[in-house]
UniProtKB/TrEMBL annotation:
<keyword id="KW-0645">Protease</keyword>
<dbReference type="InterPro" id="IPR046336">
    <property type="entry name" value="Lon_prtase_N_sf"/>
</dbReference>
<dbReference type="InterPro" id="IPR003111">
    <property type="entry name" value="Lon_prtase_N"/>
</dbReference>
<dbReference type="GO" id="GO:0006508">
    <property type="term" value="P:proteolysis"/>
</dbReference>
<keyword id="KW-0378">Hydrolase</keyword>
<feature type="domain" description="Lon N-terminal">
    <location>
        <begin position="11"/>
        <end position="204"/>
    </location>
</feature>
<dbReference type="GO" id="GO:0008233">
    <property type="term" value="F:peptidase activity"/>
</dbReference>
<dbReference type="InterPro" id="IPR015947">
    <property type="entry name" value="PUA-like_sf"/>
</dbReference>
<protein>
    <submittedName>
        <fullName>ATP-dependent protease</fullName>
    </submittedName>
</protein>
<dbReference type="Pfam" id="PF02190">
    <property type="entry name" value="LON_substr_bdg"/>
</dbReference>
Amino acid sequence: MLKPADLPEVICIFPLPGALLLPRGRLPLHVFEPRYLAMLNDCLKSDHRLIGMIQPREIPGSTERKLQAIGCAGRLTGFSETEDGRYMITLTGVSRFRVREEVSGFQPYRRCAIDWAPFARDLGRPESDPGLDRAAFIELLKRFFSSQGLATDWGSLAEAEPELLINSLAMLCPFEPADKQALLEAPSLQTRRETLVALMEIALRGGTEGERPQ
């Protein structure tokens, strides 16, 4: 487990729309673009092996792609190489971060100076959610999965610890990028579960953009 003193001031950034990584979650990724292959090679040489997952933020009327203010860093914990030189990797979430500024350099990928302090809690023990009504939550989830044509191992979900249950669903459910960002920025596990419930209920009602959680 990384400690605050182990976290670097600058990390490489992987902007990916709709991708959500949360602390202690596991995110599989397929890496094939040359700039991100270079990023992966540099990451493997580092002591911390951290990659910052963050969503790009489109600017209306511009081709420039800014970054969201908040992302989550994951430690490279698994990878395999395909015959044509691509990689299947797994990132394990370590901590969220706030972007201070982008850092220029000769690397083909983006790097940012990071502020970890607002999310010091992420490095602690798994969160709990005393307000979770598991039976009602699973019932809503079944209706949502049915509406989306999704399947899962319901026995495993019924037994999963609250953080694993809620964060895994937040990462895997097919929500819009803005909704994923709201789940990432939720200040607590309870707030994330409440946001997740709201998003599923909106989807079941066929809700509009104006109904999205702010």
